Amino acid sequence: MMTITRARAVLADCLRRIALLALVAPLLWPASARAILSIEITQGADVGIPIAIVPFAWQGQGKPPQDLAEIISNDLVRSGRFVSIPRKDFVSFPKSEQEIVYKDWRVIKAEALVIGTIAPVGPDRFDVQFRLFDVFKQAQLAGLRYTVSASLLRTVAHQIADVIYEKLTGEPGAFNTRIAYVTREQANPKAPSVYRLQIADSDGHNPRTVVRSVEPLLSPAWSPDGKRIAYVSFEDKRSKVYIQNLADGRRELVAEFAGINSAPAWSPDGRHLALALSRDGNPEIYVLELQTRQLRRLTNDPAIDTEPSWSPDGRYIVFTSDRAGRPQIYRMTVDGRRVERLTFEGEYNARASYSPDGRMLTLVSGQQGRFRVATLQLDSGALQVLTDTALDESPTFAPNGRIILYATEVRGRGVLASVSSDGRVRQLYRLEEGDVREPAWSPYNRELQY
Amino acid sequence: MQRKLGLGVLLLAAVWLAGCATGTTTQAPVEDRSTSPAETAPDAGQPDTGTQALPQDDGVPSGALPGTVPDADLLAKRRVHFAFDSSALDEENRRIVEAHARYLVANPTLTVTLEGHCDERGTREYNLALGERRAQSVERVMRVLGVAANRIRVVSYGEEKPLAPEHNESAWALNRRVEIVYK
Question: What range defines the domain where residue B139 resides?
Answer without folding.
Answer: 2-26+65-182
